[in-house]
Design a protein that fits this description.
This protein is an all-beta fold and 165 residues long. It is 0% helix and 49% strand. A hairpin with a 7-residue loop joins β5 and β6.
């Protein structure tokens, strides 16, 4: 079985601290903050707390492998503000692996859901996911989440930049 060095999440995804701007719902009309050039951006750090890989073929990266991951989300003052919960399915095995990931961000006031293909799992490269919806104050959310891996030891830490439009 291949050692797990990190997970790709939303999904799968987070401990040097960064700014967390106020959380707001997505803009939908011409008088909105988005139309005035002030679309909300939320920056959070996530520390992977649990990650399990379920390989189809032990010892290799194969189509159909599953990854389940949970991370804690922190603001710039390192206050826990939420969690991520996600799953990824390997759609292309081998050295140029690709994973289809579904991640839910639980935040004060609601949840955001994301979906995207994560390339570079082995290299922990950056990835983007589309915001596909939400609940509560995020019920009309649209936009994208950009993820950068900023540490892999002792824990995997990612910076999530949530761009609401």
């Amino acid at each position: 079985m291949r050692p797990i060095r990190a997970a790709g999440l939303g999904t799968a995804t987070l401990v040097t601290l960064l700014a967390c701007t106020p959380v707001a719902t997505a803009a939908t009309d011409t008088g909105s903050a988005h139309a005035r050039g002030k679309a909300p951006i939320i920056t959070l750090l996530a520390e992977v707390q649990q990650l399990t890989r379920f390989p189809v073929t032990p010892g290799s990266v194969s189509q159909g492998d599953q990854v389940v991951v949970r991370s804690d989300l922190f603001d710039k003052a390192h206050n826990k503000v939420g969690e991520t919960h996600g799953t990824c399915t390997t759609t292309r095995g081998g050295a140029d692996e690709a994973e289809q990931c579904l991640v839910t961000y639980t935040l004060p006031g609601g949840q955001l859901t994301t979906q995207g293909v994560y390339f570079n799992y082995i290299d922990q490269g950056p990835f983007d996911s589309a915001i596909t919806g939400g609940t509560g104050k995020y019920k009309k959310a649209r936009g994208w989440v950009h993820s950068d891996t900023i540490a892999t030891t002792p824990k995997v830490v990612r910076r999530f930049t949530i761009n609401l439009v």
